[in-house]
Task: inverse folding
């Protein structure tokens, strides 16, 4: 296998590159011109460019047979135009370039494509896209629409993987930012009822990505990617708080967040505000919901089983956070 990884210097991308190198894959990393190259990448071929530049993407894809497409705006905030330009148009560039050389694309999407269904249903891969809750879920749905259209027209060999809430050492969203809020004493839990967190350790996600790339029958299929465990948001946040000696996580009523989040999104505009709002509908839809994303398809069709348990993952986080 000779693989191109877009978004290679991101959290998931770096874990994936290490796994591919361990599997003796020839790796080319598509890296922004200004991004530093991580240590230990001596064997990685670096292709610099921007995902929004079709010519740069076309050049990067030449000579590869597999493309792991991770590059996207991974934020629950920001203008729709920004998400559209990078996530959607960037994906179109990747698909067109990959189709031209008949490369198999592993599209890293998101469980947020299930939209409002997350709060109401168990969401297996047969569940249709729900109402998007913000620019992130909207752009992820658009990615999948592009993939489906090209798959059905036989122009593209593509497998869609929908990660749950990805955690592990180096996770900005579900580790570092959560810890910052816990240390501040900010109410972090939405509602008091126990809700599944839909966690996916980054190494377990990489395992599914590898299996999706190496199983011929995975072409044209879609897979949820989680740890398949019943860990709740309360347990996870309490465990993180204990590791860093933060206060016990506080709750905020779901009904209150449901009212406040749209108001904050409406007024939280530059130049007055340059950061994300304290609450968003995207965050409410995940942290305020019972995240049930069955992984039966990945288990039965790919032979997936998690490579790291929740206990092992938290021990790894404790060791890292204590040392740093």
Result:
């Amino acid at each position: 296998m000779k693989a191109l990884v877009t978004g290679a210097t991101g959290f998931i991308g770096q874990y994936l590159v290490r796994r591919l190198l361990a599997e003796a894959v020839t790796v080319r990393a598509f890296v922004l011109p200004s991004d530093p190259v991580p240590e230990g990448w001596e064997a990685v071929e670096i292709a610099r460019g921007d995902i929004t530049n079709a010519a740069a993407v076309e050049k990067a894809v030449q000579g590869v047979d597999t493309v792991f497409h991770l590059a996207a705006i991974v934020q629950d905030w920001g203008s729709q135009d920004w998400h559209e330009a990078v996530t959607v148009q960037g994906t179109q560039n990747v698909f067109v370039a990959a189709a031209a050389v008949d490369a198999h694309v592993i599209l890293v999407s998101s469980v947020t494509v299930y939209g409002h269904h997350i709060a109401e249903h168990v969401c297996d891969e047969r569940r249709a896209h729900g109402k998007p809750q913000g620019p992130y879920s909207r752009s992820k749905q658009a990615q999948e629409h592009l993939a489906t259209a090209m798959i059905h027209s036989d122009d593209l060999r593509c497998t869609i993987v929908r990660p749950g809430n990805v955690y592990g050492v180096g996770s900005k969203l579900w580790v570092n930012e959560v810890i910052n809020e816990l240390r501040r004493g900010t109410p972090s839990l939405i509602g008091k009822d126990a809700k599944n967190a839909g966690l996916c350790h980054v190494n377990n996600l990489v395992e599914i990505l590898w299996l999706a790339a190496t199983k011929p029958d995975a072409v044209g299929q879609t897979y949820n990617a989680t740890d398949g465990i019943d860990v709740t948001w309360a347990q996870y946040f309490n465990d993180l708080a204990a590791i860093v000696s933060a206060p016990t996580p506080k709750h905020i009523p779901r009904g209150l967040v449901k009212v406040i989040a749209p108001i904050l999104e409406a007024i939280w505009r530059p130049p007055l505000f340059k950061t994300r709002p304290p609450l968003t509908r995207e965050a409410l839809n995940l942290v305020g919901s019972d995240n049930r994303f069955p992984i039966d398809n990945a288990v039965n069709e790919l032979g997936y089983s998690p490579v790291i348990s929740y206990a092992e993952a938290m021990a790894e986080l404790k060791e890292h956070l204590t040392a740093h």
Observations:
- Residues 2-167+199-226+291-307 form a domain with the Rossmann fold fold (CATH 3.40.50.720).
- The mean pLDDT is 96.
- The two ends are 36 Å apart (CA to CA).
- The CA atoms of residues 92 and 146 lie 7 Å apart.
